Each structure stands twice: as structure tokens, then as C-alpha cells.
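Hey, resending since the last one bounced:
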Amino acid sequence: MTFLLTYITVTQEIPIPQLQKMIDESQSEGEKVMPTLAQQLIAEGKDPAVEALRMYLTVIKRIPAPLLDKMEAEGILKEEAMRILTLPWKKEGEQQKMQRILQHGMQQGMQQGMQQALLMQLSTRFQLTEDEKQFIGKIAELEKLTTALKLVVTAQTKEEVLQSLQAVVH
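The C-alpha cells again:
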């Protein structure tokens, strides 16, 4: 335990490339040190995540040991360690959720824009009833709206365009 605290304190100011070179040149097999430390903590009945957080709070944040003991007794350290360990996954989940929301919003925006363009073009060329306007406002498929927008240019009647909106898209 003392080794790890000393290691953190001493190496905190050393640039990563230099630290990597020092580890590579050393006789110690560094990749075996951390698992061994974790195994030792587990053997002592300690949670490695909680101990890592405790070391961080002691060395970096300089929180006094009695306060840390109280936090550990109340379960606060374990909760915080678990929160920190799961944070990357939670953030990833939040990002995916945000992407889905943005994508859905963009699709709705495109749909509404295409509906408005279709209504404007059809109203310019033909007289539309309120029912026909409401029908167009209910079309959600972008492919149908795209087809109808293209068809407005060559259609002889509004029925040709409206029928394309009723057709099943393959």
C-alpha cells in the first residue's frame, strides 16, 4: 500500500513518455504489480475500487483519514467508487440516447418541411380542400413525400399526386 502511494506521489509530475520508458527499462514486470495489489486487497477483505478511491482522496485531494473512515463506514466511498467506475458507460448510454433523440427530431423536421413544401406546391398549382391538406399533414414516410414532391412538377391533376401518397412504398 505504501508503495502505491509513493508511486503515485513520485510519478505524478513525470511526463507519460518518460514514465513509460522508465517502466520499460526497469527490471520489474509492471503489468504484474497492479493485479497482485488488487489480489492482496481482496485477500485482506478490502474492495480494490474503494481503496483506489481512498488513495486518490488521501494523496491528491488531501482528505484526512478520519473523514475517509467515516465516509467508508457510511458506505459513501463504495457508492462513489461504483459511480466513478460506471460513469463511462452511463455517459455512453446518455450519448446514444441523445443521438436517437436528435435523429428523431431531425427526421420530424424533414417530414414537416417536406409536408409544407408539398402543400405549398400543390396549392400553387391546384386548389386543395381542407381534407386534402390534413391528409398530407398525416403522411410520415419521407419516401412518399419525396415521390409526391417530384410528381408535382409533371402531374396534370392533384389526384395523381395524392394517389402517390396513398400508394404502398416498396
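Residues 1-6, 27-33 have pLDDT under 50 and may be disordered.

Sorry for the duplicate.
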